[in-house]
């Protein structure tokens, strides 16, 4: 087995090891919480290092933002686990790519690892948000039927959490738990709209808040919103179908860039390492990377249409 394959396997193993350690720590914390709740004296056992690191990260603004994004993506992962996986992947990329192509490419690969992780997180957020938006018409109908039956809005939200599938079930249960713990309806719905920002959810939340404050025909409003949301869902589906070719082109441009660099090094071994040691070569590589990045951003901006 060649050295690059061995180093690649070691890099993948390192990332999986960090991920597994985070999952093990999460399981231990859950077990610790169950043990604490079952103790009569309420004395908690000492926290582990990952727990303390996660607590410190969540105390910062960036840590809270990242924790919010992880929750919005539906990932059962700690902030510390996510960041440690990025660090492990970046170090592995520096060791592997830096050895094969040169130190400059190793650093670029480490930066690319960070973009890949956050891109995966953003993709999970968008997919989960799209799934939730697709459930909004049914959610509006469930709330409308509950309101027509004379149930309060708090009870209607808990009922909808039992009726709908994920991700609406998870989000609505979180909202219902917040209401049971004494949070205001405005705070709970605002937090829901912040985790899954969209125009459709914003309209539904605004309608519920206005009805809760000033009254009005909530049943009629929710039924009207359900029909409108159903029409918007069909329009969004048509737009995604039309833009499918452009999205594939976006991925093709990125793959062609990476494949072109690998082909140059395959045709002329050591060419990229030699280029990265001279100023002219560094400028050419930087210009090429900038052009590819600009093309990806332009195609992505063209294919982003708000409905």
TrEMBL record:
<protein>
    <recommendedName>
        <fullName>Type II secretion system protein GspF domain-containing protein</fullName>
    </recommendedName>
</protein>
<dbReference type="InterPro" id="IPR042094">
    <property type="entry name" value="T2SS_GspF_sf"/>
</dbReference>
<keyword id="KW-0812">Transmembrane</keyword>
<feature type="transmembrane region" description="Helical">
    <location>
        <begin position="279"/>
        <end position="299"/>
    </location>
</feature>
<feature type="domain" description="Type II secretion system protein GspF">
    <location>
        <begin position="140"/>
        <end position="264"/>
    </location>
</feature>
<feature type="transmembrane region" description="Helical">
    <location>
        <begin position="242"/>
        <end position="267"/>
    </location>
</feature>
<dbReference type="Pfam" id="PF00482">
    <property type="entry name" value="T2SSF"/>
</dbReference>
<keyword id="KW-0472">Membrane</keyword>
<feature type="transmembrane region" description="Helical">
    <location>
        <begin position="103"/>
        <end position="121"/>
    </location>
</feature>
<dbReference type="InterPro" id="IPR018076">
    <property type="entry name" value="T2SS_GspF_dom"/>
</dbReference>
<feature type="transmembrane region" description="Helical">
    <location>
        <begin position="6"/>
        <end position="27"/>
    </location>
</feature>
<feature type="transmembrane region" description="Helical">
    <location>
        <begin position="75"/>
        <end position="97"/>
    </location>
</feature>
<keyword id="KW-1003">Cell membrane</keyword>
<keyword id="KW-1133">Transmembrane helix</keyword>
<dbReference type="GO" id="GO:0005886">
    <property type="term" value="C:plasma membrane"/>
</dbReference>
């Amino acid at each position: 087995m060649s050295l690059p394959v061995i180093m690649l396997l070691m890099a993948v193993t390192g990332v999986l090891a960090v991920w597994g350690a985070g999952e093990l720590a999460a399981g231990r914390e859950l077990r610790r919480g169950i043990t604490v709740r079952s103790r009569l004296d309420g004395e908690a056992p000492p926290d582990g290092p990952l727990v303390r690191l996660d607590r410190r990260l969540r105390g910062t603004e960036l840590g809270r933002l990242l924790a919010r994004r992880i929750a919005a993506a539906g990932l059962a992962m700690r902030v510390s686990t996510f960041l440690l996986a990025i660090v492990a992947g970046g170090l592995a990329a520096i060791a592997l790519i830096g050895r094969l192509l040169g130190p400059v490419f190793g650093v670029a690969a480490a930066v690319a690892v960070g973009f890949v992780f956050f891109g995966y997180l953003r993709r999970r957020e968008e997919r989960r948000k799209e799934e939730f938006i697709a459930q909004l018409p049914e959610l509006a109908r469930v709330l409308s039927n509950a309101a027509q039956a004379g149930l309060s809005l708090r009870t209607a939200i808990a009922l909808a959490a039992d009726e709908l599938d994920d991700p609406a079930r998870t989000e609505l249960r979180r909202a219902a738990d917040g209401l049971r713990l004494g949070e205001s309806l405005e705070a709970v719905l605002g937090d829901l709209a912040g985790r899954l920002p969209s125009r459709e959810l914003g309209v539904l939340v605004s309608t519920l808040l206005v009805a809760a404050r000033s009254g009005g025909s909530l049943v009629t409003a929710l039924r009207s919103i359900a029909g409108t949301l159903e029409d918007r869902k069909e329009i969004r589906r048509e737009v995604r179908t039309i833009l499918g070719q452009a999205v594939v082109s976006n991925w093709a441009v990125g793959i062609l860039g990476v494949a072109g660099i690998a082909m140059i090094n395959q045709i002329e071994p050591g060419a990229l390492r030699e280029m990265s040691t001279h100023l002219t070569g560094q400028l050419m590589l930087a210009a090429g990377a900038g052009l590819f990045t600009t093309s990806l951003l332009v195609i992505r901006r063209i294919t982003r249409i708000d409905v």
